[in-house]
Specification:
Helices cover about 15% and strands about 45% of the residues. It has three helices and ten strands, in the order βββαβββαβββαβ. Strands 1-10-9-4-3-2-6-7-8-5 form a ten-stranded mixed sheet. A hairpin with a 4-residue loop joins strand 2 and strand 3.
């Protein structure tokens, strides 16, 4: 079960867009661990998956770098609406520090850390379609965070 949480955190892992399914309206950004001696020797590392559900629009590069996940404030939301049109009743999640250029417009975001085998290419255990990964890989500390559905 997800713990209701507020967005507004910075993570300095290197993030990439690893999954986007228009038909299922979701996207996954994954933060990869640094390839240090521990990861190389153990063959595993802790990733951070951000699972966006009910995606209406996404604007970001495939490789993002560090993430500053936060909800757009009123002015940022208005600026985006003036550029792209009505957003409706969705969250606007900004994902890069000091920028509104990279964003995901979605119904909610769910996030958790997972200890995964290298090279970290498994599908996200947060996606309910990935039942095998969800059964095999539990969230670190058993905690899954989620915003409220918009």
């Amino acid at each position: 079960m997800a713990v209701p949480s507020k967005v507004g955190f910075f993570d300095d892992r290197s993030f990439s867009l690893i999954d986007y399914r228009h038909g299922h309206a979701h996207a996954v950004l994954r933060g990869f661990p640094p390839f240090d001696d521990f990861v190389v020797e153990s063959g595993e590392g802790v990733v951070l998956d951000l699972y966006f559900a009910g995606v209406q629009r996404i604007s970001c590069w495939k490789d993002i770098g560090p993430v500053h996940l936060r909800a757009a404030d009123t002015a940022e939301r208005a600026t985006l609406e003036s550029r792209i049109g009505s957003i409706g009743r969705k969250w606007v999640f900004l994902i890069e520090p000091d920028s509104i250029e990279s964003y995901v417009i979605a119904g909610r975001v769910v996030w958790a850390e997972f200890l995964l085998p290298s090279p970290f290419t498994l599908p996200s255990p947060l996606d309910s379609l990935n039942w095998e990964e969800a059964d095999t890989y539990q969230p670190v500390g058993g905690v899954v965070h989620s915003t409220r559905a918009y």
